[in-house]
């Protein structure tokens, strides 16, 4: 799954579309492409463009949403008590796979395929990720957005509870979901002295009933 991160901020909204049109027409676009209407006008004026670049409109939507997300202020989106979907996540349906790879400026040609593109700002960062959505990404979003019960979901699909946990975990690792801070906390002065023993063994044991409120584990 390919990603595109942090497109050049000063090259206009439709930089990839503009470059592709210029390459296809042998020169610069006849009009400045600075809005969805301008992109549509350019495509209407050159019908052969969509024949050669059928993914152009979908690519334009991705660039448009990237621009909106990039210009939005960076917010601190730390989940307080439960895992949640990243508030900055944008989910765009598209008819081609590989659009994020086009944004890197390479010569990849997207292939027809109904799917989705994910755009999201990483938590506590100004870094923006753009990628083709994996089915597991979409499932993780659905699980959290609809508050689905993990055990029941695992039973319905014939998988283990751990498999569902892993799907949600991986989405949180990517920044698609935002986890609350860990409740496992040590006092500030806990084990401040240096440990000089040659061996130090730490063996925590957690049960299903653990509420993570203990300090002695």
- pLDDT < 50 stretches: 4-10
Query: How confident is the prediction overall: mean pLDDT?
Result: 82
| Total helical elements | 8
Shape: elongated
Short description:
With 217 residues, this protein is an alpha+beta fold.
Main attributes?
217 residues, alpha+beta, four-stranded antiparallel β-sheet, two-stranded antiparallel sheet, 8 helices, 6 strands
What does this structure look like?
The structure is a single chain. The protein has 217 residues and is an alpha+beta fold. The protein has one domain (3-178). Helices cover 37% and strands 14% of the residues. It has a 4-stranded antiparallel beta sheet. A two-stranded antiparallel sheet has the order 2-6. α1 packs antiparallel against α4 (56-71). It is elongated. 24% of the residues are buried. The model is unreliable at 4-10 (pLDDT under 50).
List the helices and strands and how they pair.
Elements (H helix, E strand, L loop, with lengths): L2 E3 L9 H11 L10 H10 L1 H6 L3 H16 L12 E2 L4 E8 L1 H4 L8 E11 L6 E5 L2 H11 L4 H8 L3 H14 L2 E2 L39
Antiparallel strand pairs: 1-5, 2-6, 3-4, 4-5
Helix pairs in contact: 1-4, 6-8, 7-8
